[in-house]
Amino acid sequence: MNDTGFTRHTRWDTATSVLRYLRTHDTGGTRSDIMNHLALSSSTMTDTCAKLRDLNLIFEQSVHSQRRGRPSLMVRPHPRGPVVALIDVSHTHWRLAFAHIDGIPHIHRVESIPPSRTIFLRSLTDVLTNAHNELGSRLVCVVVSMRSTITENTHTQPVFLGWDHLDFTDLVTQLAPLPVMIENNATLSALAEYHHRRGAAHGYRGVLLIDITSSIGGAFISHGSVVSGATGSGGEYGHLPMGDPTIQCRCGAYGCWSTVTDGYALARSLGDPPPVDPEEYVHTISDECLLDPEGVYATVRDITAHGPLQTRTLTSARTNLGQGLATIAQGLGRGLAGLTNALAPDVIVMSGHALTVRRLASRAFTQAFDNALMDVRRTRAPAIASAVFGSEGYLRGGAILALDTVITPAYLDARSHH
Ligand SMILES: [Zn+2]
User: Fold this and answer.
1) Which end of the chain offers a freer environment for a tag, N or C, measured as fewer CB atoms within 10 Å?
2) Helix (H), strand (E) at residue 63
3) In this structure, are 327 and 205 located in the same domain?
4) Do 61 and 118 fall into the same domain?
C-alpha cells in the first residue's frame, strides 16, 4: 500500500490519545483503564503499547490489582523519554520545573528576580541553554508563564516587576528550533483546570477562570478553545472598567476592575499604605482573620445584613477589616456577574486571593453576584468552583500546552524513523 503522509500520521492517532490520557490523569493508568476510557479493543491497546515502548515513550509496570485475577499493567512515562521545561515568573521569584509526558511538574530550582531585566533574560536563556545541552533532543518544548499580558508570544508588560516592557524575541531565537511559548499564567491555570481529569473545570463548555495574585488574571475557554483575540493578548478581564473611575490602574487606564479587588484595594480600604507585595499583603490579612475568624465573620455578616452603622459596637480594627473585605467581595461579585452576563460560562473557577476574599466575606460576595446577574443568567447560574491546582496550575497547564503542541502523530511518526 502506498504510504502517504496522511495515512502514516493517522496510524499514530491512537498512540497520541494514549499519551494524552497520561498527561491528564494523575498516576498514569492501567492498560484496562486507558482501554476503557478510549474505547479501544484489547488487541489495539496491546499493539499501541508495544509501539510506544519501542519509541522509549512508555514503560509498563506490573501491579497487583485489588480485584481477583491477573496483575494489571500500569502505563508510565519512560524515564529516558521526552521532557518539557516550565518557567513560572512571579513578583519576587522565578522557578524552573521539568515534566515528563505525564505532565507532572518537578521543581528544579527557584531564584529571586534580579533587579535588571537584561540580567533576568540572560539568566533564563542560560538556564534553558544548559538544560538543552544536558537533555539534548529529549527536551522538546519550553513554556514560560508570566503574570502579565502577552502579545504575539514575545512581548509582555510585567508592570508588577516595575518593567514597562520585556521582549523574549532574543531568547526564543537563541533556543530555536526548540519551541518556546510565553503564556499568561491565568490561561495556563485555566488549561490545567479544564484538561486535567481532576481539574475544577473538567467537562464544562464555558470556563471562566479568575485568579487574583498581584492583580486579576483571567481566561475564558469556550468549547475547549482559549478565547485570546487577534494577538493572543485577550482575556484581560481585570482591566474592564468595573472599578472606581477616579483610580488609575498600573496598566495606565482609569477605573479598572483590578483596582477595587486586588491587594492594593484591600490596603486602601483598611487605611494601610500601598503594600510592596500585594499578594503577600493579602496572605497576612487572611492570617489575621484566621486568628479571630468569628470576630471577622461576624463583622462581615453584620455589615452585609445591616450596613456599617450596626457594627459600631465592635472594635474599630474588626470593623475596618470586615468592611474592607466586604467591599472587596462586593467588587469581585459584581464584576463576575458582569462577565457571566457577557460570556455565559457554565463554571467560574476562582483561584488565588479571589478564594480568600470569597471565603472570608461569602455573603457580601454572593449578594453582589446575584444582584448583578441578568434573569436569564440567574435561572441557569454558573457553578462556582475553587481551582484544584492553585499556582501549580501554571506549571501543569504549561506542561499540557507544551505536550499537546509537540507530541502529535507527526512527531511520533518522525520518532519512529530515527
Ligand atoms: Zn488596568
Assistant:
1) N
2) strand 58-63
3) yes
4) no
pLDDT tens digit string along 216-272?
899 999 999 999 989 888 889 999 999 999 999 988 899 999 999 988 888 888 778
Extract the C-alpha cell encoding 92: 519576587
Question: Is the same domain home to 215 and 235?
Answer: yes
State the total domains in the chain.
3
CA angle, 161 as apex, 155 and 167 as ends, to 5°?
Answer: 20
Does the residue 194 lie in any domain? no
Asked if residue 195 belongs to a domain, the reply is no
Q: How far is the CA of 276 from the centre of ligand 1 (A)?
A: 18
Q: How far is the CA of 142 from the centre of ligand 1 (A)?
A: 29
Rounded-to-integer distance, Cα 254 and Cα 241, Å: 7
Place of cell 503577600: 280
184 & 212 share domain: no
Give 196: exposed, middle or buried? Use CB within 10 Å, 0-12, 13-18, 19+.
buried
pLDDT tens-place string over residues 172-229: 999 999 999 999 999 999 999 999 999 999 999 999 999 988 788 999 999 999 999 8
Same domain, yes or no: 231 and 288: yes
Strand partners, 98: 85, 106
Q: Find the 79 Cα to ligand 1 centroid distance in Å.
A: 45
CA of 406 to the centre of ligand 1 (A): 34
CA of 101 to the centre of ligand 1 (A): 37
Ligand 1 centre from 253 Cα, in Å? 5
What domain range includes position 363? 201-387
Residue 21 lies in a domain: yes
- The string of DSSP letters for 166-192 reads EE-HHHHHHHTTS-EEEEEHHHHHHHH
Taking residue 294's Cβ as centre, other Cβ atoms within 10 Å add up to 7
* d(CA 45, ligand 1 centre) in Å: 51
- Distances in Å between the Cα of 206 and the Cα atoms of 189, 225, 245 are 15, 9, 30
Quick one: 277 and 302 in the same domain? Answer: yes
Is there a domain that residue 208 lies in? yes
Domain shared by 213 and 352, yes or no: yes
